[in-house]
Amino acid sequence: MKNKLPKLIVMLGPTASGKTELAIKLAKKFNGEIVNADSRAIYCDMKVGTDRPGKNEGGVRHHLVGSLAPYSEFSLAEYKKLAVDKINDILKRGKQPFLVGGTWLYISAITNNLEIPSVKPNKVWRKSQEKFESETLYKKLQKLDPKAAERIHPNDKRRIIRALEVINFSGKKISEQQKKGAPIFNVLKIGIKRDLSEVEKRVRGRIKTKMGDALIRETRRLLKKYSLKLPAMSGLGYPEMTRYIKGELSKKEAFELLAKNTRRFARYQTNTFRQDKKIKWVKGATDAAEKIKKFIKNSG
RNA sequence: GCCGGGGUAGCUCAUCGGUAGAGCGCAGCCCUGAAAAGGCUGGCGUAGGCGGUCCGACUCCGCCCCUCGGCA
Prior knowledge:
Strand content: 5-15%
Largest sheet: 6 strands, parallel
CATH class of the largest domain: Alpha Beta
Strand order of the largest sheet: 3-2-4-1-7-8
Structural class: alpha/beta
Distance between the termini: 11 Å
CATH topology of the largest domain: Rossmann fold
Radius of gyration: 21 Å
């Protein structure tokens, strides 16, 4: 059976696994361009903390990096739209798209073609709901969309409110709208295999060399422009450095905390990736190149 | 050497007579318009050691060991 869909190469791995380097190498080799699938690398002004590549890093084009203001409202649905457009654009120009990043849900939205309920988030309305107890909201949800209530925990206020929001503004149940559509790409998923101990080492190394004072300076700059409450500001590094700047932690403590949080995040990512059995795990560039070669030849 | 604080879950500590709890960590899981976010679940540990008092001791008493602070 031949898969006629356009080919998309996905590269994923935990933070500090060396995704970007590897992706650049492979994109060069296979006439590719890279679309970012990292939720925090999308924002501009956040280069050090997110460790994201430049738009032309390594002589390869990177899309959806540093292209969004940290205060802009952003979400999965927006991401999906932007990323799919970019991928199609790359294909149209006869190049091979690479989707590269560590945000599982973003990748899943593309590879599984998630149909996201088309109700936009309504900040004002959400705030009005926040005032109620989770229990009250949950009871309401049980009445209006019992199926959704079954899947959402009574304490998960954020999801309860979203489910209610969808009903409130569309009249349709969220449980009936969240679906996987037919695939839009023929996907090869490549994961970068790395032991956790190795990731930990790289995390420490990255913090020492790439960050250091640069991260503190960047955080100072960001704090002047943006509120700490922004989702963009919750990215690894900024909360920790803010605590140092405020004098709550010593410099050493702040970096220690960052190392710990980064390690934990890497572990969390590794766990989620592990559940996808379709990922082909590779150790290095040669390994990956072989798989890509086969993929391009075979189903074309 | 003397005086005092302390030795309880990986860590920080709570319980102070009826055989132990919390936070963090760690592990696992759920999450489709905030995902580097949000939510859930999981604790038998010889309560430093040995004796004693007591129906019963982590809890009181004695000795020993370790640790921290002060005095020599």
